[in-house]
Amino acid sequence: MSSDPRETSFYDMFAASADNIVTGSKLLMELLGADTAGRAEIAERMRAAEHAGDDATHAIFHQLNSSFITPFDREDIYKLASCLDDIMDFMEEAVDLVVLYNVEELPKGVEQQIEVLARAAELTAEAMPNLRTMDNLTEYWIEVNRLENQADQIHRKLLAHLFNGKYDAIEVLKLKQIVDVLEEAADAFEHVANTVETIAVKES
């Protein structure tokens, strides 16, 4: 193990990025119980979290460009940082759409979508520090893949619910866009897990 300080800072940066995603998932949970004024305020905090996420991603890219030695393949570092960034972007977009579209009530099932994202966020934040040693990561990517399958099922049920004829066409379009973006966030968690798996396989 090299003692090059530049090498270890990548781990801290990935951990910071994942911790920020946990913040984002908690804001999504808050969104569920909020009124219109509360939602606008949550969207502001989400925007700040998304900016912090961007800063974390740029720091990783900057470190990547200026490091002679990296702890694992450059393209994998780039991919992991990009996928973590995607999660935050999708979460922020979902909150923003709820506010912009003036959604009165989110359809039943969205809370399940958000619960899955919150669980995936916790697992991801717990996993990032383990990149140093490559220990205890198998359970992480298996569980995130399982959660993504669960998210798929919830998403399909939500779509069936939206198309059952009880909503007017415009409302369906608005709500479908929101549940689709939340599904993209679930997919992005899986992309992170798959990238971690790739890194672990190469390092073993």
Question: What can you see in these coordinates?
Answer:
This is DUF47 family protein. It holds the Pfam family PhoU_div. Belongs to the UPF0111 family. The protein is mostly helical and about 200 residues long. The chain has six helices and no strands. The relative contact order is 0.15.
Compose a concise summary of this entry.
This protein is mostly helical. It has helices at 5-32, 36-66, 74-100, 110-127, 138-162, 169-203.
Write the layout of secondary structure elements.
Layout: H1 5-32, H2 36-66, H3 74-100, H4 110-127, H5 138-162, H6 169-203
Helix pairs in contact: 1-2, 1-3, 1-4, 2-3, 3-6, 4-5, 4-6, 5-6
Question: Judging from the principal axes of the Cα atoms, what is the shape?
Answer: globular
* Average pLDDT score: 93
Taking the alpha carbons of the first and last residues, their distance comes to 14 Å
User: Biggest sheet: strands, sense, closure?
Assistant: none
Radius of gyration: 18 Å
Provide keyphrases for this structure.
6 helices, 204 residues
